[in-house]
What we know:
There is one protein chain. The protein has helices at residues 3-21, 31-44, 164-170; strands spanning 47-53, 63-72, 76-85, 88-97, 100-105, 108-112, 140-144, 148-150, 153-162, 180-186, 192-199, 208-215. By secondary structure, it is an alpha+beta fold. The protein has one domain: Clam (outer membrane lipoprotein receptor (LolB), chain A), CATH 2.50.20.20. Strands 1, 2, 3, 4, 5, 6, 7, 8, 9, 10, 11 and 12 form a 12-stranded antiparallel sheet that branches.
Amino acid sequence: MRKPAVVLGVLLLVVGLVSGCGGPEKPTESPAQRLAAAQKFLEKTDGVKIALSTPQLPPGVQGVLKAAGVGTKQPAFKGEISVVQNGLSVNVPVRAVGGDVYIQFGGSWRKIDPADFGAPDPADLFKVDGGLASLLSDVEGAKAGKDTRDGKRILSTITGKIPGNRVAEVIPSASADSPFDATFTLDDTDHLTKVVLTGPFYPKADDVTYTIAFDDYGSSTTVTAP
């Protein structure tokens, strides 16, 4: 009559031992802690591929439609940029290094002032102090969203708002008076893979949504003036 009780006790002991083999569970990080980790990865990488885009710009706005290339911690940028000016979209190769920005137009390179195109210096986006990474430390009301799977990767979303004055420090054309909605996507190692920012990027115009994708952390290139 006692055998079932003995068997049950043995089973409970085995289950307890098996469950204990995994050790203590990893503490769940808060959204702010995960953003802080993502910021460090972005600041420390030698370089990262970036793709920035918006579906469209408000009528009459001169600004960046899309950009793609490699940003490095020099800081520098090398890639292509598409801008809308006088109602026309122009796609040109661009290099930004040493505080100067160059575009290749008509077969030759020339120095430009990116403010004339409603754009920041692309290299400034990769500064350790004051670049895109710095925005991750200024997210207000950060909340975790649902996780999704991308192949073998688990992607997490975090939403919040970024004060306009902080965005304006990175993108000068942005309004400093209104907050920007932000959605961050992080992989399971807390590397930032995508940011979606919505807000008043251009004066006297409707809000614009920019999507910025990050890939190939550690990929770098030497950028020189043409």
